[in-house]
Amino acid sequence: MQTMRIDFHAHLYDSYQVQSWCQAAIANFQLRPGVGGVLVVVDRQGQDSFARLKREVAEFGSFVERPTAQSNSEQALLAEIVVQDKTLYIVRGVQYVSAERLEVLGLGVARSIADGRPVAELIKIITQQGGIPCLPWSPGKWLGSRGKVVARALKEGHGTSLTFGDIAIRSRVGPPSTLLSRARRAGFPVVCGTDPLPRKQDCGLVGSYGLEFGLAGALELEHFLTSPSGFLINKINSMRVWGGPNSGLKSLLRFLSSL
Question: Which of 33, 77, 189, 231 could form a disulfide with 163 if both were Cys (CB 3.0 to 4.6 A apart)?
């Protein structure tokens, strides 16, 4: 059986050096024979990480876009990077900023509209595209009126592919997120990812926090490669946490640097 480790909330910022980013993911995932790594790269408005990776990975490795079953997308949704016999799978994703100023991730889809739509509408659009909608926790953003929007999504999201996200900066020290706890109790999948900041030193975090799962054989791998979002949504509930969130001090320092 092959083990796959996946960071559901990765970014590739302009401040990051692509080779360092790939090497950090390989190291943090501890890639070796029998262990693979997956990065879901959620682009902000104006970004196209696939195009950048295609240009720059050729200098030190190989980058191959793979066709998937989601024919409603004109852009590649899955790519394979090979660096010194280590393989990283890259799944395309998008990070929208909603009308309520909340982040909404689309996992396994390309951007189709500009930022600024309501959360409920963004969830519907991502689902219609065949992707996985995700509401990621973020410092201070799930409080007050925005917290009520998240609570409404919890209430209305049953029977959909809606997921919620935990990120590395939510320190392992301190009180848990009430809404994340509610999501888990209600049976919603909670995915994990690093969600690095644009500062250069966060480049090294990629792949250090996520989930892991087993692939029973070649048929399961082929299913993932041809339909990554469909495969993942069916597999999420059996995944285990990989890595861990930041220490209390590191979380505080990263949060202060983002202000």
Answer: 189
